[in-house]
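thread from #wetlab-drylab

HS: before we spend reagent money on co-crystallization trials with protoporphyrin IX containing FE, can we at least see a predicted complex? here's what I'd submit
DV: go for it
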Amino acid sequence: MGHAAPLRRDPLRFLCGLRQRGPVTKIYIGPRPVHVVNSPDQVRELLTVQARSFDKGAMFDALRVPLGDGLITAVGERHLCHRRLVQPAFHHERIARYARTMAERSLARSADWAPGTTRDLVPDIHRLTLDVLLRTLFADPHEPGLDAAVKDWLTVKYHSMRLALSPLHAWAERVPLLPGWRPPDAGPLRRLVDVQLRIIANYRADGRDRGDLLSMLLLAGGPEGALTDAEVTDELITMFLAGTGTVSASLAWALHEISRRPDVQRRIHDELDTVLAGRPPAFEDLPALVHTRQVLTEVLRLHPPSWLLMRRAVRPVTLGGVRLDPGDEVFFSPYALHRDPHLYEDPEVFDPDRWPADAAAKAPRHTFLPFGAGSRLCIGEDYAWTELTLAVAAFTAGRRLEPAGTAPVRALVGTVLRPDRLPLTARPRPS
Ligand code: HEM
């Protein structure tokens, strides 16, 4: 069992506790050794200086079969080439176009939340992030069966990701500890791929740029050629995989923190009143929403959805004085780093003002890692900041959020770190 039991029982506390054992420490999950990196300097080595000596590791291998081989799982030349081809879909001017959808859908989703009523916002937020992703991926789907295929696939996604990314589940095949273990069903992926191939065929037929992500993936090309239809479907599925749970967890944590802090909420209201003066939020407003950005930065520090990341050595390499052989697995935890008292004063305190207003956008890499770093840095980072800021503005501008009930909101530590529920009451804003 090694450290599997404490890692399963309370993974966050276990990972934070490891920092006392030095910059790189070895733990065992079942019979397998895993090296845990606890210092920002060694994380920098891992993600940038020595990045070529590592791939993503066993857990991502496990995702490739049920979820396809898009950017998140791709390695080596395939990763470099696809990264170059996918990048234009996330350029600034493109995100400005997606922002219209983000703002419009966030306002629509929050509009029917009447003052005086209480809701668990978690399901609303899930629906919102999926809706935004679908509409920014496919501005023009007109394809019957897309919604059903996505819903069907999401259930397999959750199962596969839990299996692959949760530290203990990843070893389920080798360490048969889990009685409920079963392999993911390949049917939903196949059906989603079929629907997407039909959409791609329609797009290719007229070659129009519809302003969405799919158009960019189809238009992308370079010396290395263009993405094939099969590669495009892998990338689309990767976006579902990477761009829904992470954003909904962050938005839920943000509304949770804001609702519990009248002073923070008041400053957000003041900022929105000044910048928006009653009109809907838009992409052009983002630079002026300074306090909202500081709040979101602090939310991502305290509650990074990707709480545990991993790599695997592909050649002999030394990290923090520890020699790693090919195949050796490495973990590092943005959560543990973000709560390290050597890196942040009073790390458990929620304090948006720890981020200077003009530097919030450039928080230091390697001590602030919600989006990773180096060549595998989240390609959707700007997309996520945009969606989160516009959604926070939409949900807070016209109402005051208040926590409902006395039961504490708990962190669920799964493939992402998310709140189990978010019961909030909307109150009218004093005029
Ligand atoms: C708050 C929201 C998000 C968070 C916290 C987040 C976090 C991350 C992290 C930590 C990584 C690096 C993983 C590693 O190094 O192993 C990553 C990679 C990635 N993310 Fe995000 N992400 C978010 C939103 C998004 C969105 C909205 C999209 C797309 C629409 C997206 C697409 C991707 C992709 C494709 C990769 C793989 C990039 C590569 O390896 O080249 N993410 N994300």
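DV: The chain has one domain: 4-427.
HS: ok that's useful, forwarding to the group
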